[in-house]
Design goal:
15 strands; alpha/beta; 421 residues; single chain
């Protein structure tokens, strides 16, 4: 499973947090062209939908996702009497940016949390969220797609991080399910017990999208409850200091240290006995490492209690779309109970709506910890420019083993204050 098929998902197994530098540059140029209701040069949507099919653009994790979305659009076509044409992007951020800049964006499309605020700020997105039953979405998902006091777009599904344990390695170390770690100290001890000559106790990627879970468990995060920059908090220093102490033991390594592209690959090849990943790892294990037995358990609590990260996309509707009514009807169909469960079965995502929580847990009981994490998860702050800040944070986290945590956090705090004072 390729590491370049990103985490911000809600659908893709393991995407990188941010766009490429080229894609980010295109987005910045597009943002500079934005007007209040779309882009200069683009036309406003008509009161009545124009003739012709809807265009839908997604970034797919693979054949299973593409087939599931194709089937959903076909079902909507049959129900509505309209047509929706699907395009699978090779570079979603770049293709969206080019469409917006040309005044001809797709009608409906995936929007990631790290790009959302930029699109909302420059007028690219239709703010249709208040036309939905907002109360049925998990509150943190609504927060992820709210900007300037408006709920913009429907979270399509989501993922949370939890601890993935190789149960054979666990048993060989003399451990039982009663020993699953519930505190940082226990995690550190277990990782040391699981570390052998060819296997490291815990392996993740060196990025906020994994290490940030420890920040949440310490009671920290990128921003405080009021949305102000809080990267250099004492809680975050404590979190990174703990991670550095684990790295120093050799029982925690980064994926590149063991010759893997991401935590799931290290885990699947059994170079890691534990990893921290989202529920997209389930599909990767089924496809690439079907003989590796594992358990999904809650991440241990830290000094601040339970904490994890969540990742999601929304169904964006272009402000310049000439099919506003049909686009909204399509989105409502795609986020319905029946269709969200079909996506869950088709390519392993978690529904963004609470109304099918019990049904999802009954269908996937071994993955229940992922959904339980919704109650205490932190998302990517909806800030214009957050992608660049996290890119810089990630670059510094790669050197955490030999760097001072406070120095790293102080540096990133300066970057974040520029967009979240």
């Amino acid at each position: 499973m390729s590491r370049t098929t990103s985490w911000f998902r809600a659908t893709s197994p393991r995407r990188l947090l941010v766009a490429s530098a080229a894609g980010a540059t295109v987005l910045a140029l597009v943002a500079a062209c934005g007007g209040g209701g779309g882009f200069s040069g683009g036309s406003s949507p008509t009161a009545t939908d124009a003739a012709g099919p809807l265009s839908v653009l997604i970034g797919s994790s693979g054949d299973a996702e593409t087939q599931s979305v194709t089937a959903a659009l076909a079902a909507w076509d049959k129900q509505s009497g309209k047509t929706a044409n699907l395009t699978v992007a090779s570079d979603l951020v770049q293709q969206l940016s080019q469409g917006f800049a040309a005044g001809s964006p797709p009608d409906v499309f995936y929007v990631s949390t790290d790009q959302f605020a930029g699109y909302a700020a420059n007028g690219s997105l239709e703010a249709y969220g208040d036309k939905l039953d907002k109360s049925n979405f998990y509150p943190t998902l609504v927060d992820s797609f709210s900007y300037g006091g408006k709920f913009y777009c429907a979270p399509k599904d989501f993922s949370t991080l939890q601890l993935i344990i190789n149960t054979d390695a666990w048993q060989k170390a003399g451990l039982t399910s009663a020993d699953y770690p519930t505190t940082w100290d226990q995690l550190k001890t277990d990782a040391q017990k699981l570390t052998t000559g060819g296997q490291t106790g815990l392996v993740t990627t060196p990025e906020w999208a994994r290490i940030g879970a420890f920040m949440a468990q310490a009671g920290g995060g990128l921003v405080d409850k009021d949305g102000h920059a809080a990267v250099d908090s004492d809680a975050n220093v404590q979190a990174l200091t703990f991670v550095k102490s684990m790295l120093a033991t050799g029982a925690y390594k980064f994926a590149s240290d063991v010759g893997a592209g991401w935590g799931g690959e290290a885990f699947g090849t059994q170079k890691a006995a534990m990893t921290i990943e989202g529920n997209w790892i389930v599909g990767a294990m089924q496809a690439d490492y079907p003989n590796v037995k594992y358990a999904v358990v809650p991440l241990p609590k830290g000094p601040g209690g339970a904490g994890t990260l969540q990742f999601t996309n929304c169904w964006g509707i272009a402000a310049d779309s000439h099919h506003q009514n049909a686009a909204l009807d399509l989105v409502k169909f795609l986020i319905s109970d029946q269709q969200q469960m079909a996506f869950a079965k088709g390519f392993g995502v978690m529904p963004s709506i609470k109304s099918v929580a019990d049904q999802w847990k009954a269908e996937f009981p071994a993955q229940a910890a992922f959904l339980d994490g919704a109650a205490y998860a932190q998302g990517v702050p909806p800030l214009n420019g957050i992608a660049a800040v996290i890119t810089e944070f990630n670059s510094q986290l790669q050197a955490l083993r030999t760097s001072d945590p406070k120095t790293i956090l102080t540096s990133v705090q300066g970057d974040l204050k520029a967009i979240a004072p």
